[in-house]
Amino acid sequence: MASLWALCSVLTIAAVVAILAKIIVKMAMSSGWYKKSFAERQNQWSKTGGLFFAPLKQKLFSDLDEHLKQLKGDVLEIGIGAGQNFDDYPQGMSLIAVDYNPHVEKLLKENLAKAGGRVQMKTFIVASSVDMSGAEGKVGVEDNSVAAVVCTKLLCSLTEEQIVKTVQEVKRVLMPGGRFFFMEHVLGKPWSLRYILQQLVSKSHLWPTLFNGCRCDHETLPFIQKGGFKLVQAEKRYLKVTPELHVGSKKISVDWSSRLLAYLVHSVLLGFAEKER
């Protein structure tokens, strides 16, 4: 009986510690210090490890360019961060930027200037992707108002409930015939070493704490397929994780930490969903 009580006590203490840790992490992630720090780290990551995504982004934004030739209008990017997609966007594109983190605005404008007029940013809206309606007098995104919505590496940072709401918001703001372009890293091949590590770093809250709630164990496609779109086209592609990357005619060495991050986000869901006309 004593041993049973001891076991119960240990389990109770462990549960309390886990709950307290989760609360502390959540509070820390909502602080201004964390948001500012993450904005800077995200900007830095996009310059190095983000290069692994370059071939996939080329495909995504080529499809966006073709779409905009058929349906004129603004493009809305949700979870835009520091503007890591500026160099990939079609020339002269009109952009509405949305991010929940106000601290990305300074970096966003710096990277916009470096893009040399490639993108025309109409406005930056501080809002969550789950509600861009502009309630309580805030600036928002109107119904049926944009030709396309772009989302790259955002849904991985949301809960399942938030993903559902985000997909609903995307459909709300799209014009009839508008498209939702997405690129999201997802869970790898079941029971591979990568799969096990993805589960471990996600469920231990190590990865979400370091990367603003991001998880490596999401399967995102079903949420988009159930979003009520007329058409969903998606494929899974894989990052090539190498010590060096070719950027034009140059070779760039990639440090071990960036290669490790790329290893854990190896499987990438790429595609678009089209709203009924």
TrEMBL record:
Classification via InterPro entries: Methyltransf_11 (IPR013216), SAM-dependent_MTases_sf (IPR029063), Thiol_S-MT (IPR052356)
SUPFAM superfamilies: S-adenosyl-L-methionine-dependent methyltransferases (SSF53335)
Domain Methyltransferase type: 76-182
Protein name: Methyltransferase type 11 domain-containing protein
